[in-house]
Amino acid sequence: MDNERKRRLAALAVILDVTEDNEETGWIANSKRSCWVKPWLTKKSLGVQNQLYEELLATDPEEYKRLLQLSSYQFYQLLARVQPRIERQDTVMRGAVPAKTRLQVTLRFLASGERYRLLYVSRR
């Protein structure tokens, strides 16, 4: 047996061994999820961000500008430009995050330097 064939057989043996290990431990790519959306995430309208931005926009535009580094006019202009690119469709499993919310989270992340996980939870 030549060296190339030995290497290929050894690689195949490693792949098969890893595949068997994954099947035994449950690490299968097509495994079913226990839930698609965590229950606390279904209450998006109660999230800090959703309430905060709407209230700031109505009562304190200057604070809104400090938070996102854009005035409301600039924000809506930017949203009009990027919305077709960042908008997603709802699926049977869950509703899509609105383009407005996606842009707000992105701008807040870039402006504040907060950790993504913290922003994710505050968005709810």
Radius of gyration: 23 Å
**Pairing-aware structural class of the strands and helices?**
mainly alpha
- As a percent range, the share of helical residues equals 55-70%
Termini separation: 60 Å
Number of helices: 6
Portion in beta strands = under 5%
Mean pLDDT: 76
Secondary-structure element order, as H and E?
HHHHHH
Q: What count of domains describes the coordinates?
A: 2
For the largest beta-sheet, the strand count, sense and barrel status come to: none
Tell me the overall shape: elongated
Number of beta strands: 0
| Uncertain stretches | none
Give the helices and strands, then pairings.
Blueprint: H1 3-25, H2 48-59, H3 61-68, H4 72-86, H5 99-112, H6 116-123
Structure description:
The chain is an all-alpha fold and 124 residues long. The protein has two domains: 1-31; 39-123, no CATH class. It is built from six helices and no strands. It has helices at residues 3-25, 48-59, 61-68, 72-86, 99-112, 116-123. Helix 2 (48-59) crosses helix 3 (61-68) and helix 4 (72-86) packs across helix 5. The model has no long low-confidence stretch (mean pLDDT 76).
